[in-house]
Design goal:
The complex is a heterodimer of chains A (218) and B (695). Chain A is mainly α. Chain A has one domain (3-207). Chain A has helices at residues 3-26, 30-55, 58-86, 98-119, 130-147, 151-173, 178-206. Chain B contains 26 helices and six strands. In chain B, strands 1-2 form a two-stranded antiparallel ribbon. In chain B, strands 3-4 form a two-stranded antiparallel sheet. In chain B, β5 (618-625) and β6 (632-640) form a beta hairpin. In chain B, α2 (29-56) packs antiparallel against α3 (82-109) and α2 (29-56) crosses α20. The chains are: A mainly alpha (218), B mainly alpha (695).
Chain lengths: 218, 695
């Protein structure tokens, strides 16, 4: 693959990633958010594969494979399972209206591009658009976590945020060392595990959600 | 035997003692304690031989030994020069006494201690002594810090090992927090140097430091000074000391007060005169004046607070603050005068000699006093002086030895405390004439404060000895006391002998001080400057500027005192012959009781009134009357004084922190998405800032 081809593929993937992010933010039902984040992870895996083919970096193949298995398949499946298990409240309960969140995420995207432009071109980056897309994904993920009341949607936000970090690492600095990537993935799995257990436990014992934790304030 | 083998042998003794104590933990606790203390004694003896070998060997010799590689990133080594050897000597001298004293004391105090606890005490004692010894022998920053930390942890274990009550645990916690705050400062100081040097050994640090710019050098010094001052218990960083030292078993108190504080002094001297000293020219003037000021404050306030303590060991702990202050006065003066013109440099040697000599002297008499207090404690199980009294008849040897220590710490001739304080005075008075401008006045003021300190210390020990040992027993605890076991008396006698030897023949000690003073200051050693006329006569030669040196022979003073005492005794015997009659004390017709004696509170009352501005004394007097208000059946008196540093600095800080956290708590929403929102906001702001900076 020529450098131009790779660049245009990554640019297109970045656009698709941003689109899936918008889907996550705009999702009114929790299933849609889960499907969107699964699609996003799939796109990340594809991006990893493309970059691996372009640079010949074996580590990136491994990372792409792990992303495909863990983030595009396993974690969405777990989320899906938890939602079915709880069997209630399929609607997302935003803290601020979804339209407001969308406006904020647009703002974040603009700010990311603005800031990246002021940083100047990154030397190793495949394309100039990778860094702002990565930053925008990360920050919008945090935005989703901040504006959703239920723990499950916050988990979706966390995964989206993770995807942003992965994309930045892959497209801007051609991947972190393998051991760190694997460590990050393990962290995500662990976080998902802990949050799942907590959500189920809290619900089954006191019938409350994360949003109700503020009642514990001293 | 060769001196080179010394460090290894010492490490083997202490390490072996620590390990075998642990291994015996499941078996007999008494055996574990015994083995641990024997090993500690052996280690101390090796340390004694090693230090004497260096001090009396060829001048300027430094033993450097690599330590087998422990870390891939740093080569560790030991380096023993004159200063290290001198502090090793002081540590070893007191450690011998503590090791002899320990087993009998622990057995007498708590006969039914669990084996695990006893083994822990044996283990921690060896670790403590070994770490102290190797802090002084460290040849690189890493060894120094590791041993420093080991010393703190081991002493913490010993502090909380005595009795399992809340008071000790709190004292230990406070000690831990303060000590680690100090270590943090030290860490920053050391890392500031090692990071620039790219190596850990002192030689590289020295080379780096000589290229430092003056502000950085001063900052590193004050970081290190802060760290060491916390450990030394300098006011206002002393709050842990009067709590932690009394809480430990008494022989450990003796080690902590007598020796561990000195390790901090070693650190200060090592940093100021060796590691951070500029290549040429005097030290920055801010160093010496700060140390002098801090020393003077600690000396005066330490003894003033000591005066109002009624807990025997707490009183002694406050006296450590005072004596550290006296040592720092000498050290600070040496920093001020060093490398000024020629005669001042000689005076700097005098000042440093005074500080180092007082280090050894304080170790000897404070060790003795703590051991004496321990003997009282293990026989009466009471630390409050008001509940003691009349022990001189019941514990005659302990009383005599404690009195000797009290005389020494009160800086009375012919004992050792007098010698070093006299030298400090000489240095101060000589320095006052050398330093121009207001500095001279400040030095004179410091001399006046030192004189006040000596007087107050004498008053304090008149109280401590009188109330504890004289009069009649006030409680059954004191009444049924018996003499301490022989091994404890022997340990005290050893330290008492040191007090007498250092007092009567200080000229010999000057020879030991040659190596450290010339290693630090360069030029002539202490014996060339101080003892001009043989080993027995001390004289300070300051003649070049027309001020006559003062000379004094401690040996002659001692002989004179002995002769006078003998004459008075003989005269009294002759006077009294044939006319002796035994009768009860006349007490206006009442039968004498213990209530007639001076109490500690009453004895200290005049000074409490004089220094009321410092003490903020509080007293509660309640009258318990019968039916008629004119017939008082009982009067309750309760009084206490406050520690200014504690109320004005620490309590205030604690209050402000809790107010702040209350405010934060009132503002916090408790909702998780709110917090995530904060994170998001912080990220965006950080990004924007980056964008602005790089534009």
């Amino acid at each position: 693959m020529s450098a131009d081809t790779v660049q245009s593929i990554i640019d297109d993937l970045g656009a698709l990633l941003l689109f899936t992010m918008i889907l996550i933010v705009a999702a009114g039902q929790i299933y849609r958010a889960i499907y969107a984040v699964a699609a996003q992870s799939l796109l990340i895996a594809i991006a990893g594969g493309v970059l691996a083919a372009a640079t010949g970096n074996v580590d990136l193949w491994v990372i792409a494979a792990i992303t495909l298995v863990v983030k595009a398949t396993l974690l969405p499946w777990v989320l899906h399972w938890v939602v079915q298990r709880m069997n209630v409240r399929r609607e997302i309960e935003p803290v601020i209206p979804i339209a407001g969140t969308l406006a904020l995420s647009v703002l974040i995207v603009v700010v990311s591009f603005q800031v990246s432009a002021s940083l100047g071109p990154v030397r190793q980056a495949i394309t100039g658009n990778a860094l702002p897309v990565g930053i925008a994904l990360t920050l919008t993920g945090v935005l989703v976590m901040a504006t959703r009341k239920t723990a499950l949607t916050q988990m979706v936000g966390l995964f989206a945020s993770e995807n942003g970090i992965f994309f930045t690492a892959m497209a801007v600095s051609q991947g972190m060392p393998l051991i760190i990537e694997i460590g990050v993935i393990l962290d995500v799995i662990l976080a998902a595990l802990v949050m799942t257990i907590m959500v189920l436990r809290v619900r089954s014992t006191v019938d409350a959600d994360i949003a109700d934790l503020d009642r514990l304030r001293g | 035997m060769d001196v080179q083998a010394g460090p290894g042998l010492m490490a083997a003794c202490y390490g072996g003692g620590a390990l075998s104590s642990l291994l015996l933990a499941r078996g007999s606790g008494r055996l574990a304690v015994g083995v641990g203390h024997v090993a500690a004694c052996a280690g101390a003896l090796v340390g004694l031989g090693l230090s004497l070998g260096v001090l009396l060997g060829e001048p300027g010799r430094t033993i450097i030994q690599p330590i087998p590689v422990l870390f891939p990133f740093a080569r560790l080594s030991l380096s023993i020069d004159g200063l290290s050897a001198y502090f090793l000597l002081v540590i070893s001298l007191v450690a011998i006494a503590a090791a002899v004293y320990g087993p009998a004391y622990l057995r007498a105090l708590s006969p039914e201690a669990r084996p695990a606890r006893q083994a822990a005490q044996g283990f921690a004692l060896n670790l403590f002594l070994g770490c102290m010894a190797f802090v002084c022998c460290a040849g690189d920053a890493l060894t120094f810090l590791l041993c420093w930390e080991g010393m703190t942890l081991a002493s913490y274990v010993l502090v909380v090992s005595d009795d399992r009550d809340g008071e000790n645990a709190r004292a230990g916690l406070l000690y831990m927090v303060m000590a680690h705050g100090g270590t943090a400062l030290l860490l920053v100081a050391f890392l500031g140097l090692t990071e620039r040097a790219g190596a850990f050994d002192f030689g590289a640090l020295r080379a780096t430091a000589s290229g430092l710019d003056p502000p950085t050098r001063t900052m590193v010094f004050f970081l290190a000074f802060g760290g060491f001052a916390t450990k030394a218990g300098v006011i206002p960083l002393h709050v842990w000391l009067p709590r932690a030292h009394p809480a430990a078993p008494s022989h450990i108190s003796a080690l902590m007060s007598g020796v561990m504080l000195k390790v901090a002094i070693y650190g200060i001297l090592r940093f100021a005169f060796d590691l951070l000293a500029p290549g040429a020219g005097p030290l920055p003037s801010s160093w010496g004046w700060t140390v002098l000021f801090v020393g003077t404050t600690s000396a005066v306030l330490g003894v003033l607070y000591a005066l109002q303590q009624h807990d025997l060991k707490r009183l002694l702990a406050f006296h450590s603050v005072e004596n550290i202050g006296i040592i720092l006065i000498g050290a600070g003066l040496a920093m001020i005068l060093w490398r000024q013109e020629a005669t001042s440099s000689a005076l700097a040697t005098v000042a440093l000699t005074a500080a180092l000599l007082h280090t050894a002297n304080h170790a000897a008499f404070k060790g003795l006093l703590f051991l004496g207090a321990g003997s009282v404690l293990c026989r009466t199980h009471v630390r409050n002086m008001e509940e003691l009294g009349g022990l001189a008849r019941r514990m005659p040897s302990t009383a005599a030895l404690f009195l000797l220590g009290a005389v020494a710490i009160s800086a009375l001739p012919p004992l050792n405390g007098f010698v070093s304080e006299w030298l400090t005075f000489q240095a101060l008075l000589g320095g006052a004439t050398r330093v121009q401008g207001p500095g001279g006045l400040i030095i004179v003021f410091a001399a006046a404060m030192l004189a006040l300190t000596g007087g107050l210390a004498a008053a304090c020990f008149a109280k401590a000895f009188g109330v504890t040992f004289l009069g009649r027993p006030r409680t059954p605890h004191a009444e049924h006391a018996t003499e301490a076991p022989p091994s404890m008396i022997a340990a005290m006698a050893w330290l008492a002998a040191l007090c007498v030897a250092l007092g009567v023949a200080p000229g010999y000690a000057m020879r030991l001080l040659d190596a450290p003073t010339s290693a630090l200051l360069g030029g002539a050693g202490s014996s060339a400057v101080v003892a001009a006329r043989g080993p027995l006569v001390l004289s300070v030669a300051l003649t070049p500027s027309g001020i006559g040196g003062t000379a004094m022979s401690m040996t002659m003073i001692a002989a004179l005192l002995v002769a006078l005492t003998a004459i008075a005794w003989v005269l009294r015997r002759g006077w009294r012959r044939g006319s002796r009659r035994t009768a009860p004390t006349w007490t206006c017709g009442m039968s004498p009781s213990a209530r007639f004696d001076y109490t500690a509170t009453a004895f200290a009352k005049p000074l409490r009134l004089v220094f009321a501005a410092l003490y903020h004394p509080r007293r509660d007097v309640t009258h318990e009357t019968s039916e008629s208000p004119y017939i008082v059946r009982r009067i309750h008196y309760a009084g206490e004084i406050v520690d200014l540093a504690e109320t004005h600095i620490y309590r205030r800080a604690a209050r402000d922190i809790s107010i702040l956290s209350q405010t934060i708590r009132a503002r916090s929403t408790g909702s998780i998405y709110g917090y995530i929102g904060f994170v998001l906001g912080a990220l965006v702001v950080a990004l924007l800032l980056v964008g602005v900076i790089y534009r």
